[in-house]
Model the fold of this input.
Amino acid sequence: MQHKWNEKLADKPMKKTIITTLLALVCVTGQAQPLLKTHVETGDVEGTPDGTDLAVYKAIPYAAPPVGELRWKAPQPAKPWKGVLKAEDVAKWPPQPEKSYVKYDMMSEDCLYLSVTTPAKTVNDALPVMVFIHGGGFATEHYGGDLWQSLARRGVVAVSIEYRAGSLGFLAHADLAKESDGHSGNYGILDQIFALQWVQRNIRNFGGDPTKVTIFGESAGAMSCHILCASPLAKGLFRACISQSGAFLSPTSVINQELAQMIGQMFMSQLKKNSIAEMRQMDAKELTGNGVNFQGCVPIVDSYVIPEPIYDLYQKGSYNDVPVLIMHNSDEGAVEYDKVSAEQYEQFFRQLPDQWADSAKALYPGTTDEERLFSLRDLTRDVGFGWPAYAWTTLQSKTGKSPVYSAYLAQKSDTTVYAQGNRRGAAHADDMMYLKGAFDDNAAKYPQEKKVGDLMQQYWVNFAKTMNPNGEGLPYWPVFEEGKATVMQFNNGATLIKTPNLQRIKLIDGFMQYVRSLRIATDGQKTH
Done:
């Protein structure tokens, strides 16, 4: 029977062409398409296709615009809209200083939006969710820097969230505290929490599973992730965390509510204003733009969002105990220095007490131009990123029950995000290139970078799917264990090493304990 059917088709080539075309159309239309339209709590929303396998919703409001009387208040619910919101363009940047790539006309105080990139074909797919928090020193940058198609194509729903930055996100003041049950500041962190609550309520409609949310962030975004791990307000909003170059443990960065409100009053005086009401009338550019000198652009230990210094919370085991993957880069300081004079080098160490300066200079020598450059870069890496990563991994390994994974990105490349001059490895923010698949289209020129990017992406997605980075075809990655080769180093592949730069980090750990002891002694005197 089949033979006769084929003979008839052979006799009539035109009919064969038509039937083949129809069959092809049936196959194409029969394939499940990306979820390009859906509904959220405030209305219908439509995304845009990215290839044939992803739907991208570039800007969905998760909160009301924080303008007018809502400036310096906790985020409020977004208002419903009629019709269909076409989420085809990213939202404007939060107000911040201008740079070569972002001008004031690209910014708006109406900035509380998020993106969703989903490979789901139906709302019932129940895929794991990865929520990204961008960096920028709590003062700059934008959620639209990457919408994480690279990760979504590996089987997760990827969300990127915006939050208030600079003085609009972190101003504390006694008058604001009177409006908010005694606390003020941390509005940017409250935005992040509000966005995660939105994800819990709405992500099913994008094919995501709200019980399988992993937060991940870079730099200040990684510090934000750590704060969320420590905040009781974020409990239950995620089940795992990935930190890339950031933790919030240094005693030198702790600002309490009292100090933050003093900084806020100084800022008000500097602006020649007499009240919060007057400051709410100011243009956002006057509060965040170039030349604005706001000294309090940092999260605050306010007894609300952050109940106590996070180091203390981790010592006591009082935090959201979830699986964590913590990474920093081998040449983080390459974004800070491209040359260091002898005077710069000496000036740096003069800031330290004598007993610490001598020990530090022995480990970070400066007898030549190159030695000084690499020493200050390494010191920047170890103080700002290496020690915080080490402290987080060791503290949670001791006081928590969830697995802790540690990583070190050491891949050297002639491509970088921000760094200048000669580099010996991966600079600050270079991890973003590997996660976003920046080398996918140029693998022949960058084979090792492409390999590292594929490894990192798959480990990250596996971690989001199972709370364990391991999977088929990947080098085995054990849980962190101090003193053993359990740190995954990404450099021309993936291999296990012991904690890198440990002698230097131990010195910094001793210094941090010294600073903490001074703070504890000072706090003790205040209570008597």
